[in-house]
Design a protein that fits this description.
The protein has five helices and three strands, in the order H-H-E-E-H-E-H-H. The chain has helices at about 1-10, 10-30, 60-80, 105-120, 125-135, and strands at about 40-50, 50-55, 85-90. The longest helix is centred in the first third of the chain and has 22 residues, at about 10-30. This is Zn-ribbon-containing, possibly RNA-binding protein and truncated derivatives.
Length: about 140
């Protein structure tokens, strides 16, 4: 692998690469202990003191993991004796931000909205909403 060659000349990069591989292996080993339908919904984050931190992407997955983990703790401890307990945190996957609305109402259309709003005295709420639309877009 090309990255291994580069990392062999840089101890910090080599250490980072080894840590990354360790966490991937730990994630894979723990996923083997759990039902396949849960695999895409969680990942191993870190070990803080003696606590294995797992992030779940959905509340349903977090609940299921919380039910299953106590019985799996002895098997997980065989993988890494440092783990004394497990904490599941619900962390939804990052969603892509919605793009800003990019529409424009022409000045001519705004004047028509304004005229219509003035003629709607019998529907004051609608007239007020149309007037607000005009003011917001000028």
């Amino acid at each position: 692998m090309q990255l291994d060659k580069i990392a062999s000349h840089n101890p910090q990069l080599n250490n980072l690469l080894q840590l990354s591989r360790y966490w991937q292996q730990l994630d894979t080993q723990i996923k083997r202990l759990l039902p396949a339908n849960l695999h895409p919904h969680f990942h191993i984050v870190c070990i803080e003191q003696d606590t294995l931190i797992i992030h779940a992407s959905a509340p349903m997955a977090a609940s299921r993991l919380k039910m299953l983990m106590p019985t799996l703790l002895p098997q997980i401890q065989k993988i890494n004796q440092q783990i004394g307990k497990i904490q599941i945190k619900n962390r939804p996957k990052n969603t892509t931000p919605t793009p800003p609305k990019n529409f424009h109402i022409s000045p001519k259309s705004l004047s028509y909205f304004e005229q219509t709003a003035q003629q709607l005295s019998h529907h004051p709420e609608l007239a007020q909403a149309m007037q607000k639309l005009v003011e917001h877009n000028r």
